[in-house]
Specification:
By secondary structure, this protein is mainly alpha-helical. It contains four helices and two strands.
């Protein structure tokens, strides 16, 4: 973690985790995907992924790839990892099931959009902050 940018990185991760939880709730409510085993019906079982794994990995991409060109390439790799590797592994373990109107490709596009929107928001915030 870049200690000089701690507040920025922390804020980025928190916004990412909030958006991930919100999108996960929306996706399960619209039956785009579901989780076969739930401890409580109102809580998604992938809270560790939504609150830790996805935000921390997204924050690391944001921290280490500051130029847009490299950020987009890294976000592409990050999206491939989560959409085409981690999601299918969760499906093999019967922890995650895709609905008939969702696919790994839609998740891939969603991860790219998430990363791009987050970086855009934070770039706009940084421009408006006094130096």
């Amino acid at each position: 973690m870049d200690k000089n940018r701690f507040f920025e990185m922390f804020s980025y991760g928190m916004l990412c985790s909030t958006i991930c939880m919100l999108l996960d709730i929306i996706g399960t409510e619209y039956m785009l995907w579901h989780y076969p085993d739930k401890l409580l019906p109102i809580i998604t079982p992938l809270i560790p992924a939504n609150l830790v794994i996805i935000p921390i990995s997204a924050t690391l991409v944001y921290q280490y790839f500051t130029k847009w060109k490299y950020f987009l390439v890294a976000t592409l790799g990050w999206s491939i990892l989560f959409s085409y590797i981690i999601e299918p592994l969760f499906m093999l373990r019967k922890m995650f099931v895709l609905g008939e109107h969702w696919s790994h490709t839609k998740s891939f596009i969603g991860f790219i959009i998430l990363g791009t929107i987050l970086k855009t928001v934070f770039e706009m915030i940084k421009k408006r902050l006094p130096r």
